[in-house]
Queue: 4 jobs
Job 1
Amino acid sequence: MKFSEYAAHDGLGLAELVKKKAVTPRELVDVAISHIEKVNPAVNAVVQRSFERARKVAKGKLPAGPFAGVPFLLKDLGSFEPGVPSTLGSKICKDLILDEEGDCVKRFREAGFINLGRTNTPEFGLLPTTEPVLHGATCNPWNLEHTVGGSSGGAAAAVAAGMVPIAHGGDGGGSIRIPSSCCGVFGLKPTEGRSPVGPSGGRLWHGLAVENVISRSVRDSAAALDIVSVPQRGAPIYAPPIETPFLQQLSMPLSKLKIAVVEEPFAKAKLHIDCKDGLANAATLCEQLGHNVEFAKIDLNIEDVSSAYLVIVAGETAALLERLSHHLSKKPDPADLEPLTRLCAKGGLVFTAADYAKAVCTMDETRRKVAAFFADYDVVLTPTTALPPPKLGVLIPSEIEQRLMQLVCRVGASRLVRIAFDRMPETGFSFAPYTFLFNLTGQPAMSVPLYWNKEGLPIGSHFAGQFGDEGLLLRLAKQLEEARPWVERRPNLARGSV
């Protein structure tokens, strides 16, 4: 099989070829590996290779799942495989090997995916850009000088560059949607509790984080969501059950929707003119498709909301380091952590149980406010990001900022740590002030590639739906995909040119 034939199909399309015996899984794996070896040196999306194991799996008997024989990549965060290192993008985990298989990983395997390796992610998924010290920066296939976003940046870059048609991702504040926007691909964050986080986990980031995929086509994401959304025994949270599989829902009619266009960010940030134009473009397209579109505002105390999110993330970071100490049989050396991670962990120790409980209360209050807003609307449309994909280095702390973070951590004074966190929302949400809200509320949301700026960089359109109703979002995405197809709009890297 030639690469041009491989790249012409989405995941379900490749699985259909395998089913018809028009191509073998080994042929698909070989062409995918060949393309990865060709373009990954420029992109740095794949940071761990499992090529020989993938070839061995491809030659054996595969599960009769919907993606049987399709090449796949796992994000190197929260996707454990027995006996396989999982670095979480961190120096302290470069030798971390667990014996358990993650529930999502198991379901992907049982669906017939053949895993070729692991994709790059920022340390512990904390930044909206993929530039970890351990593995280095992942470059945007549309322009190698720019970021791919994060934290599922390696996954989005791999899909955009044509390495695989679909890849695993996770989203705790926009980590599927932000890189999907930066790379011009499709990414859906499911409803809280829709995807499993076991076998040993209960709530990722107190329910903020969920797992799914990044894909080129809407139908691949729908089929993948069917795979991961099987109820998990003992799960602390589970999304409302569905009557019709998500893939089948794509063929159901979509009624006229009432869409609220929200331009004002949910944190301190300034909207770039390119992202404003992308929002207007998406709103116009929705109107042309017959939907009722009107501009609106969600009444939120953005300082309280962003601060609550940061307190929860800080607490979860500190708790993760405690768990890693057990798995690594030693306490991680703070010098091996990136300054921002170290500061987050320090914040998690400084904040009290009362601080955390207050943050959870703010999260619950925000859920009720947003749910009340959705009583009048079916969908909310915002930009995915407030800026086009910046150049590499822009979204990581500067050298001076890193030194200040290290100083605060060394001194360890609670007052200094709290001051640092009080100031964090001023810069921490400047790039992505929209996506994290729907992690707090647990609602499904997606980034749809509908707009490219004059520099040829993709800018996603962000749609959020009612709690538990990914089906409506997927049907809307399918309608948008048919009205303005994006599958054939690819960077040169995805056409076999380096």
Job 2
Amino acid sequence: MKKKLLFISRLYYPHVGGVEKHIFELKKVLLERDYEISLVAERHDVGVKFFESQYGINVYRISYPKIRFFGLIIIWIKLLRFIPLIRKSDIVHVHDVFLWYLPFRLLFPFKNVYMTFHGYSEFPLRKITILQKKLTNSLVKGWIGVGEFIEKWYGVKLDKITYGAVDIKDFLPKKTKIIYDAVFASRLSDQTGIAEYLESIKILKSKYDTKIRVVVLGDGEYKKDADKLTKTKGFVRDVVPFFNKSKIAFVNRYLAILEAFANKKLVIATYNNEIKKDYLMMTPFKDWIVVEKDPEKLAEKIKYYLDHPEKAKPMIEAAYKWVQGQTWEKMADTYEELWGVKKK
């Protein structure tokens, strides 16, 4: 008999993002393992339907009121119509937005509810944010954290820790003409380090008389700045061709880092706060990436590895060996172990 699984997430496919891809790839494996899956998310665009059967799962959407405090109450009211869906689900798994589910935790005290905490969204952390995570920790049956840094900064104990996954066959490096020195693949925001990368590009030109070719796959608040110094493409679903055509990867988020590893690219990462530093350094792959905070030092490292690609080879090979084990099947195993339906 199929187990009924309900995912709740703020955003989902076709919206582009790490959480969305995490759920999209995970559900492929779970469908093969005979789960019946439903998902509730925000209707992020007027062109998106409020309900659709999409790639084997039922997707329900609500309009998201961007009103502080009262917006959450409106969300709770909108979610009331999903009470029958919650009631019949064997497992409810929330991705980040546990506050959406909070009233239903009280309505269904014996329902098996779990959460995945996909990372941080602010710095410095507010006390209310830490309190919310600790409250969540006490109300869920188990949770997965994307990154060990979460335990340190939020003062919680994770049941499972992951760093993401890749389908390695999709990222096998192919012999093709290199036309970029570096690829940046992420949102153009402070969290992704785009400002530091752009500053290092300026330094390379002014201090070293080196103009590097960078392609940017993403969009956000720094797009105008990126347009002046790089070739911007906006968000793209298939990043592989751009990785293939680039020498190194400017990425500092887990999913993009793993994708760069799978494509045998050296990762050059940056950070602008202490959480992001731990995000990068409290990982099993910290020795295989180049991490710098200061744009001057970042520019120096970029030039060094572009001039001496042989120095990066041991890191690239070690990262590639490790990432081959980070499959979506392994991710599904992690979820099933958390839910108590798979033996450890």
Job 3
Amino acid sequence: MTSAKKSVPPRAEKLVFDVNPVLNERPTHYCPGCHHGIAHRLVSEALHELGVADRTILVASVGCAAFTYDYFNVDSVEAPHGRACAVATGVRRARPGAVVFTYQGDGDMAAIGTAESLHAANRGEKITAVFINNTVYGMTGGQMAPTTLLGQKTTTSRRGRDFDNEGGPIRLTEIMAQLQGVAYAARCALDSVKHVKEAKKAVRRAFDAQIAGLGFGFVELLSSCPTNWHMDPVAANRHIAEEMIPVFPLGVFRDVMKEKGNA
């Protein structure tokens, strides 16, 4: 004698992760442990959630960010090295309905492009700048960058960065936060799950500031470069936590939306 099996209704599944159409599905060219991929995902998720990808224009410079265009499924413009904020200014003024963002490295934005970056921010250009700080020229030879830590060895500071000779690392977020045209300025890190979650909120907030027409949005992301640091990925994450964050403290340094009560 056989008994009929009771049919069990299928359990409802809750979607917790879907395909992000703003990020192209392709093999990465970045080194193992590099945080560019995380940064790309955070930016693409913000654009997807805001529903603005179809009117978004990416501006990145030659050199450090030359491969960025391969990963984002948005329109893009290539700028001369360091001049992304200047080009983005022209794009945003010519296309006022667009959402425009730059993706720049520390050597690009804080060295050769310092003037263009600071003046665009001071004017309150309605663009968003994503600033990758890995304390080295990661893709062009491992040279010393404006953000290189004191004592850090690079291909152009073989004995380590010396304050008397090269000065100290530039803290660009603190500088940006003092400029009247900046609506949002924050520094985050990509070394842990907790910090990545905080970084996503900051990236979203920087785009919110632009979309609200409040001015320049800026997010600095402390990122790893295991190859040029001569470390494995685990040690690189530890380096961010133990060496970089004490020099580059995390936090929101300016938020005009919050100041205006639009938290």
Job 4
Amino acid sequence: MDSFESARGLESRMTHIAGFERDQLLLLPEAVDDYVDAENPVRFIDAFVDGLDLAAAGFARVTARATGRPGYAPGDLLKLYIYGYLNRVRSSRRLEREAHRNIEVIWLLRSLRPDFKTIADFRRDNRAAFRAVFRQFVLLCRRLDLYGRELLAVDGTRIKAVNNKDRNFTRTSLREFIRAADERLNDYLARLDASDIEDGASAGGARTKNLAEKIEALRKKRGRYEAMLAQLDRTGEDQISLTDPDSRAMAAHTKVGVGYNVQVAVDAKNKMIVEQAVTNQVVDMGLLTQTAEPAREILGIETIDVVADRGYFKVEDIDACEKAGCIPHVPKPQRGSSVREGFFRKDEFRYDAGRDAYVCPAGQLLTPIRHGRLRDLKKVDYGAPHACRVCPLRPRCTNDIRSVSRLENEDVLDRMAERLRARPHILDRRREVVEHPFGSIKQWMYQGAFLMRGLENVRAEFNLTALVYNLRRALNVVGVEPMIAAVRG
């Protein structure tokens, strides 16, 4: 009993850790710098931006004006944006709040408190300059040996635009809307005629007025559809978006209704982005070289292996990629009428360069029978009509006479097929490398949608996104202090 009471008495005398009273004056105030330790990323952001040539990068108002009201230095606002994207804060209004309450931002900006409009205007007015900042960070990472410079994985992802799917129209949808509007107009007009014939019923006047209003509204709506269709005919575009005119309806399998196509080239060593671009092209086909070649150049090497999925398979692009020093590894998609009908695929026919002929699965020699063109390329069709008619494998090959076509530069595909047979694992390696940045950007960084409208604006957004993704990876691998030393060295 005594021990129990003594324990209670001891408990009543114990207190929790207490802080300062809020109205207490401190004799020696603590410095803000004491709140930011040596390994805090804001110290690197501060050193990195201070080491940039902002005027050369294209930032406006780097030199203060001699007259007028002083403005904020672009370096300070750039630091704020990099910090914000690194901490999943992209909105200008939220960045304004952080400048008032976040001790790291207070340290970084030296207690400056720009308003949200100043912050938003800075991103809009300097949208083209952010790419140069991204490039400078890539060069820094190259000096730190963070890029293996042996294998690049290229892929694309779709990110949602500020444009609802209901405000995106294609030629087909506009024609369907006009057809449906015409049907409803005919129905309304027929009902209006019937109301006019009625013998002055009391409700007739109200019903006639209501129908007339519906007809007028529908005609205006139909007129807007016709104007948009005329605009597509005039511009040659396939679709039109009303909220963000540069955005496009993406393919159904991407799960993004209306958005942009983001392309990246990722180095395999640390899964860091070397090159990135935002386009409103719906498909990836034709984007391999323009993504991989700038990446090879910034890495400063003569040749590099490049791997991509079958969505990039286009013979002209693969040929250009190889000529640019980017050795392509792209699997061939199995498509075409023969594949759909279950016949022998084209890759089951072996090309004999010495005889300029194909050898079919039955062992017959297919020689040139026709010459033509496809997409400005010379095309030759190979066949053996007489052998096809008596071939025992004909039911598995064709309904009539089988021919195999070959483009003038198709030898580049033969070389690529040999490389893929020698390194089949490289396709799995691609998935492992390139899915990491996309998963991090959309899930960890919460950036599955753009905040701004217009292609140039969303490019500026993604330049910051890619910069911060690389920054996070570099900090995890190297650490803050070595990176600061690299900037200052």
